[in-house]
Amino acid sequence: MTTAVHWPNSLWAAVTPPRQPAPPLEGKAEADVVVVGGGFSGLSTALHLAKRGRQVTLLEGQAVGWGASGRNNGQVIPTMSAAEPDAFVQRFGETGERLAHLIGQSAEMLFRLVEAEGIDCEAEQTGWFQPAHSPGRVRLSEKRVEAWRRHGSPAEFLDKAETARLLGSDFWYGGMLNPTGGHINPLALARGLADACMRQGVTLHENSAVTSYERERDGWRIRTDRGSVLARALVLATNAYTDAVVDRLEPRISRTIVPILSWQMASEPIGDNLRATVVPGRQAVSDTRADLRFFRYDARNRLITGGSVLGAYNAESRVAARTSENIGKAFPQLAGMRFTHIWSGRIGITQDRFPHFHKLGPDLWSWTGCNGRGVALSVSLGRELAAAVDGVPARELALPLTEPEPIPFHPIARRIAPLILSWYKRRDLAELKLD
Asked: What number of CA atoms fall less than 13 Å from residue 73's CA on the CB side?
């Protein structure tokens, strides 16, 4: 009997057409590759492996898109939140250069994949804009544009006047625009990718939480409560939810990140006349703050935004009030904005803010650390992970493999991580010193 999945009170769960869940795994089965996790990276990995002719089984503990992939803001952003492209090259050489190029092209890849698979996910490639929240951050924006353009990105710098025209507000000081970015309905994208996987022959099982896996003969035996699969290769695509469904599934991964709770919310639909005064070009926007302000429209002209607050007490109402206040400061015409849907989900944060890629054993692959940029990044990495599993040499991949490095005193780090918001706020007030 299928267990009912509890969905968050998200706009995406409310407006996305339902899909018939795949049956749970029962009994013993075999596959060439098992992918664990029905989010963007797992689905993309399974899809690209199937297109390579591999027999793939995907196991999802809840339902496709239940985790971060179906809960996020839906912004398609072809950069990382803190790690800069030159830093990838400095640390990983030619592989880092390939990773920087992959990230810079990740939004374009996502939108072309959506087109090729005919996925109806409210996709709008209207661009992504990162406005500078202080005069000193303008130089940061200029340096980021220069850096990403060196790695093939079409990023461009907008000055204060151009920024005001794009946003409909003079609250910011300039910024970086990437025209390849945009936004999607993330739950619809996850469900559409699942349908694309099944069309390619992927065997999908939902309500099939992996409880353990071990080496068996020359492959891996992956177990759930009601069945098991024997596979040559195994891909763990669970990121911040590695220990959310089954505790201690893979401590080597879960201890390398700190899951941070991110809040999202959606307004009532905004009338056309008012909407035309706020981001009239419908770009996705997230600024240079560490405690960032971000927003964009959905297909129904709802403003989809979000934020964070310290502490769990009354968090939903507090984060809504704070986010409404922030929106009103930038756009006085939206002062007092109220929200019809408020929900939250985990973001996987690494110490160095890099995504991390691991080969944990023979034909056992994993990655973690979306760091708030999981939509475009995860879909693109799925293609690379599929190539790695299929035997493409490491020198041709954009996956700088490293050994997992557990965060020291990880249980304590998880408890105090929400307090980092206070430090973020102080850092946002100080100007950066740039060379």
From this structure: 28
How many other β-carbons are positioned within 10 Å of the β-carbon of residue 131? 28
Give the residues across from 227 on adjacent strands: 27
| Contact call for residues 371 and 355 (beta carbons, < 8 A) | yes
Q: Which of 258, 253, 211, 247 is closest to 364 using CA atoms?
A: 253
- CB contact at 8 A, 110 and 103: no
Q: If we measure between CA atoms, which residue out of 240, 233, 241, 165 comes closest to residue 392?
A: 233
Single-letter amino acid, residue 168: G
Element housing 231 (H / E): strand 227-236
Place of tokens 């706009």: 11
Residues 399-435: tens digit of each pLDDT: 999 998 887 767 766 776 665 655 555 565 566 665 5
Closest CA to 157 of 185, 129, 182: 129
DSSP annotation string for 239-286: GGGTTTSSTTS-HHHHTTEEEEEEEEEEEEEPPHHHHTTSSTT--EEE
